[in-house]
Amino acid sequence: MTxxxxxxxxxxxxxxxVGDVVHGLPVVNALKRRHPACxxxxxxxxxxxxxxxxxxxxxxxxxxxxxxxxxxxxxxxxSLRGRRFDLTLNLNVYFKSVFPTVFSGAPRRLGFGRxxxxxxxxxxxxxxxxPGPRRHTQxxxxxxxxxxxxxxxxxxxxxxxxxxxxxxxxxxxxxLDGLEGRPAAALIPASAKAAKDWLPERYAxxxxxxxxxxxxxxxxxxxxxxxxxxxxxxxxGHCRTRPIWALGDGVRRLITLIAGSRLVIAxxxxxxxxxxxxxxxxxxxxxxxxxxxxGPYRKYQDLWVDRxxxxxxxxxxxxxxxxxxxxxQITVAEVLDRVERAVSR
Length: 345
Fold this sequence. Notes:
The structure is a single chain. The termini are far apart. The chain is built from twelve helices and twelve strands. The longest helix is centred in the first third of the chain and has 17 residues, at 18-34. It has helices at 18-34, 46-49, 70-80, 98-103, 137-148, 163-175, 200-212, 226-238, 251-259, 270-277, 291-294, 332-344; strands spanning 9-13, 39-44, 60-63, 87-90, 108-111, 127-128, 184-187, 217-220, 244-245, 263-267, 282-286, 305-306. A six-stranded parallel beta sheet has the order 3-2-1-4-5-6, with helices on both faces. A six-stranded parallel beta sheet has the order 9-8-7-10-11-12, sandwiched between helices. By secondary structure, the chain is of the alpha/beta class.
């Protein structure tokens, strides 16, 4: 049995990370197209919540500070205590999503079934998606629309910049010393796991070629964590040119800088999906993880460097086991070949 739609008050439980939250956007856009008057509340953890603050299809964002432990759970309970929802969609598969799903109090709670949810999460939804294979995360989330009888298309993300963000974006690119009208290419050296990262000296070789041979001004993007800063410093240390240090706090800032770039190069990390949603060509570097499951959704596939899929093997989105030591197999020449493809467009 599936949850009927329309519903007047919808709760979306999709806590983290940035890429997953991006994949949830086509779901809320489709719900709003079907029933513009419905009120959508999205529950997310602090950093990824900024993907939907603001967003034209999301009426309210409730932040779940899970890192605060029991105090964060209590605060979430207080935030949701007086609200009433008709329908909750739990797009997560881990136990952390149980708290907002239950606290929503919705009589209909739709989530993944036992075969695809983990840690007993399926027990806290009273309606479930039909069993199915592992797929690209975007395809998994679109199954919620199928279960609700809502048309999927047109597929859209609608990440928007506020007017002040557009002004800040314009000022940033105008201030770049020596930019002189050159397009910006963004390099994102760090992912969430070291095993998914490429080598700093190879990023540096690509950065030098982007500046000297292709006329780009190179930005180093990422967060402000010590690990991200260390990798970025290593890249700079190997460069002959001087990429612009643009690391810093804030998902909204990251969005504005990606939106202002003409090319993004990154491993398996959330900004890849931001670039895809913003229609910025992205060269994804994959060896540890499967690009057919976690790569930019149905676009820029000719720009991927795929060292995960075996030579002669057909693409298989269901493959999810990580493969160690594959990122080191990606060469500078392969990445510059993808740069050439992107530029030739």
